[in-house]
Amino acid sequence: MATPTKKPGAATGKRSRLYWAVPAVLVALVLAVLAARLLMGLPAVASFVADYPGQSELPASAPVGFPAWLAWQHFLNGFFLLLIIRTGWQVRTTTRPSGHWTRNNKGLIRTRNAPTKISLELWFHLTLDALWILNGLVFAVLLFATGQWMRIVPTSWDVVPNALSAALQYASLDWPTEDGWINYNALQLLAYFVTVFIAAPLAFITGLRMSSAWPKKAARLNKAYPIEWARAVHFPVMIYFVAFIVVHVFLVLTTGALRNLNHMYGVSDDDGWFGFWVFLASVAVMVAAWFLARPIFLRPIASLMGKVSR
After folding, report:
1. Cα gap 223→201, rounded to integer Å
2. Which contacts qualify for 286-291: CB closer than 8 Å, 24 or more apart?
3. Which residues pair with 118 in a beta bridge?
4. Cα 203 from Cα 136, distance rounded (Å)
5. Angle between helices 200-210 and 227-254 (to 10 degrees)
6. pLDDT tens, residue by residue, 148-204
7. Which of 119, 163, 165, 233 has its CA 20 to 30 A from that of 302?
8. Which of 79, 76, 80, 71 is nearest to 130 (CA)?
9. What pLDDT, on a 0 to 100 scale, did the predictor assign at position 133?
10. What SS3 state is found at 307?
């Protein structure tokens, strides 16, 4: 059988669009900065920023600092998300799977109908999803049990004008004062809230709808929640997570890297190097996992939970 080849014209067109996209994005960023600086020079906008400096007050009972469990949760969330994004892209783009997996129907999970054969890439993606969701449940329980939820859930409507003020300050390159150990600025707070309580649940419910675990014969349920809707939402949510990670890492490294890394990995509010080395070790683990996530290593693990075939 002849191997299908891509048309040269299509590949050239994609590269051409990419070449134009980069300068277009740079021009857009420059224009955004100029517009923001122009706005910040207006008396009305300057007065607005003075009234709303970019930080919404937390409740008096809000905790200060970060506990050790949050540092572990931060690492695990980043670890799982990195591999979920990688495998999600593989599931979306792979035309010839490296193998297939069929669940063992004699284990803890038993169904009346025979299990569906899926690609090895999809099996790994779904396995990572399950671990990420389990970790997310632990995170949510600890978040509300320790009061840390008050740091990422809006408790006052002034978070909206403060977030707009922070956005203007970022865009004008006159960035708002950072003190994440005590209180995030309003834009950070909203970003974390959307990520944890909107984007993550959307990723879960849309991924579940597209998975083989969803009941295929539930006509009313499938009509109320069509798979087309799930597909239309799932990929943009992945793009959101990619954008969030890029911006998050950029701001961590450009707004006081050592102190920020100590907040997240060293559980301390200082400028020492401990958090940096822990961060470096976590990056090494993620890079190793990225390169080890190959069929030769995945097949033995997948075979423990089902049958692996070509």
Report:
1. 21
2. 286/78, 286/79, 286/82, 289/79, 289/82, 289/83, 290/82, 290/83, 290/86
3. 101
4. 12
5. 150
6. 999 999 999 999 999 999 999 999 988 887 788 999 999 999 999 999 999 999 999
7. 233
8. 80
9. 94
10. strand
162 in Cβ contact with 56 (< 8 Å): yes
> What's the token pair of residue 123?
């099996």
End-to-end C-alpha distance for the chain, whole angstroms: 18
- Residue 63 identity: P
Mean predicted lDDT score pLDDT of the chain: 88
Tokens 């599931």 — which residue?
A: 91
pLDDT tens per residue across span 8-37: 555 555 566 667 777 887 888 888 888 888
Q: Rounded CA gap, 100 and 243, in Å?
A: 31
Q: Which residue type does 73 have?
A: Q
Query: Which structure tokens are listed for 292?
Result: 């080890």
Q: What pLDDT digit, counting tens, does each position of 42-92 carry?
A: 899 999 999 999 998 899 899 998 999 999 999 999 999 999 999 999 988
Residues 6+ apart with CB under 8 A from 133: 204
Instruction: For residue 225, report the phi and psi dihedrals to the nearest 5 degrees.
Output: -130, 80
Number of alpha helices (DSSP H) and beta strands (DSSP E) in the chain: 12, 3
Question: According to the model, what pLDDT value does residue 275 have?
Answer: 93
**Tokens linked to 233:** 């939402």
Does 239 score more than 50 pLDDT?
yes
